Each structure stands twice: as C-alpha cells, then as structure tokens.
Amino acid sequence: MPALTAAALSAPAFAGDPAAGEEAFKKCKACHSIIAPDGTEIQKGGRTGPNLYGVVGRPVASDPDYAYGASVAALGATGAVWDEASIASYVADPTGYLKTALADDAAKSKMSFKLTDAEDAANLAAYLATFK
To answer: Rounded to whole angstroms, how far apart are CA atoms 72 and 78?
Structure first.
C-alpha cells in the first residue's frame, strides 16, 4: 500500500475539535446537510449525499432516503458502523477507504471530494459526533 494511502487511512493521533469541525463542514455543504429527525435544519446543504445527522454510531449505508453506491452498500452489508475514526479516514480518501475496508481493489465511492487535511477530517468527525 502506498505510504500516502496508508497515512490517509490511519486514524488521527489527536481528538478532533467540534467547533473547528463546524467550519470544516462548510466544504461538505454542497452535497450534504444535517437535518434532525424532527425536520430541523442544523446545516442546510445539498441533497447529493446522505443526511449526516446521527452518522456517528449509525450503520454504514443506512440512510433510507439515500441511494448508496455498490461499494459503500457492500461495506454496510458487513455490519460496519461509522465512528469518528472511520469517518475521518473516509473523508480523506473515500475510494481508498472502501478499497481497504472491503479488501477490493475495484471498490469505488460516489463521493469524489477528499478532505485531505487530517486535522480538518478529525474535526469534521468530532463535529458530526455531536448530533445524536
């Protein structure tokens, strides 16, 4: 595995900062929103990607209102659950994360955006963890 991919897939060595993660989420708003179960829009955003409310602790590929790609759906079928470390790794390199998690070099992600700054990725994951 190339060093860059290994670094991108490793869990951050520090805890994320939710306040900084709120700022990092601005990069995600083109495709994602954070909408509470009661319909409250916490972060108004695009509908290209799934709603990220409650994503930490939620099974992978489990938003019933989103049509997931085959690879992330396959990961969800394994029983995988999103935690802060997996979210930080996924947003750093979505396709690389799926290839590693599924041990499948053909795996790919519908998410083309990469949040390559490890601190931003950890902060974003910490921010998303605040919505339960």
So the answer is: 10
